[in-house]
Amino acid sequence: MPIISRGFHGRRPTSGNTLPPGQYETFDFPVMSAGPTPRITRDDWEFTVTTEDGTRHRWDWAELMALPAETPTVDLHCVTKWSKFGTHWRGVSLDVLLADVETAAEYALVHSYGGYTTNLPLEDLLDGQAWIAHEYDGDELAPEHGGPARLLVPHLYLWKSAKWVRGIRLLLDDEPGFWESVGYHDYGDPWREQRYQGD
Q1: Buried b / exposed e across 77-115, counting CB within 10 Å, b at 16+?
Q2: Mind listing the pLDDT tens digit for each residue in 24-38?
């Protein structure tokens, strides 16, 4: 899969926020993607959670919109070293989507439209730490930022917040995703600078 990186311009001065090690603050919202931007209509969009025994839970766009939404304000930290503070989102907590899912899984493999995947521990999707976000800064989420909906897991590097999210497979054993299979860290904590395997 080709890597497409659009240019961006960060600014060094910060506004009193604390940066994770090796990061700089940007006031833009850089767009970085692996592969072309998928275009998914809300009529065609669906999100699934599949458990380790194959049980499948599914939501279409109308069903997602009918769920209680939250409006988290979070900081973003990209492995390419930019950080953006105080971003405003609207989305559905994974706590809501996983509330009725019975599983013994400890890991999740997130799938996106376009074929992207990323892995993370299931516990990092719970307890108010993750959302299926569908609005950014009061507007519908633009395709270049993962619209119509993306995963938002702001305490980890941004590659874990999969754009164009399509579903989650719950797994008993960890399974690397796209970037993790080519050397990126399995967990990706920006405060411990876990960019690559061995960090």
Answers
A1: bbbeebbbbebebbbbbbebbbeeeebebebbbbbbbbe
A2: 999 999 888 777 899
